[in-house]
Amino acid sequence: MIHEQERLKERIAVELDRVRRRSNGLTVEALDEHELLAQHSPLMSPLVWDLAHVGNYEEQWLLRAAGGREALRPDIDGLYDAFENPRADRVTLPLLRPQEAREYNERVRREVLDTLEGADLSVRPGAPGRAGHSERSLLEAGFVFHMVIQHEHMHDETMLATHQLRRGAPALLEETPSLGPMDPPEAHEVLVPAGPFTLGTDDDPWSYDNERPAYVVDLPAYWIDTTPVSNAAYQEFIADGGYRRSELWSRAGWEWRSAREAVAPAFWSLEEGRWTRRRFGRREDVPPNEPVQHVSFHEAEAYAHWAGKRLPTEAEWEKAARYDPATGRSHRFPWGDAEPEPRHANLGQRRLAPSPVGAHPDGASPLGVRQLIGDVWEWTSTTFHGYPGFRAFPYREYSEVFFGDGYKVLRGGSWATHPTAVRSTFRNWDHPIRRQIFSGLRCARDADRD
User: Fold this and answer.
1) Burial tier of 222 (Cβ tally within 10 Å: 0-12, 13-18, 19+)
2) Are 340 and 199 in a shared domain?
């Protein structure tokens, strides 16, 4: 047991270092003070706010709540409270300057590593969460450390969205790693058989409260696309009048489209008969074989309607991603329970764009569905809610306050999502109008209509 704790602490220390290197690389090591203090869009915070916020969150949870230590900077708690300060207002706050934020974060981290060394991360008898959320503790199996690591990686993805909205010369290095051999799936869609499967998790130490408790869902058979919708396919939708045909859109979607005068995904432009896009300060032709990204829920829903299909529910998405009909088991990832590797999925900002449609055959689910993890977040038709028996842990503001009609569930992560912050049970959510996020779609359809 002691050796297991030591290995866990080593993993936590490594991940804490990795995420901070990434945060610094997106902020103080990428842009000057003026750019960091600026608000590049009212949709997003100044990047320096995100930088200090992740340090303040770390201090509150790892030093104060879990470590029982005195506050280092209680005077800044209000500045970095995401609920007290809407994004559009954060630029007006007396924020820490970039170097101050970096020094504050370094101070917090030094004390966190000291706290980690003496922490008891053992699992109480009964195993974590097997009796429900109320049985979990902050330190059990390192949960609170996992929570803080994932939180910072989520803000790093938010920072990347801010970089995408930023105008000016490119600030991020562009790398093109090898994608491996392409082996597109033979079928465009696969049949998911009818029957029960386990949705959610009870024992994943990295899981959030909204992924719990696990419960059995019995679904009728349905078809789901083997790959996300590509840019080329989406251009066919545009060319066929998709943005002009109100019958393809929901009432709310058509109102959104009309108010925005939307004619294409965010950052696209039609230039001399060809579609181009702005991507992190670079103007380029839209690559036809990549999954479409930067589409809202309303656009995704309209496309699916045009294609004669629909968006999957999140239960349908998760069954396609986790369920193995040969064994009846639900795995942590489509390929099994092993941690993600580059051959499985495009994650962690390895490249600043999705992989081509049909990539990563080693990451396919047992049913043959590709790219369920990484590349683009996929909109589902499900409104964000708690599972039966849901209990908020460790605070209501992570999940529970967002339950309701204003948010739709997205699944699977994107190329900007870190491997530690995504799994087949992970649930993201956002307003249906959002498209600065790295969101795309795949379609499904009922099997009883064949």
Assistant:
1) buried
2) yes
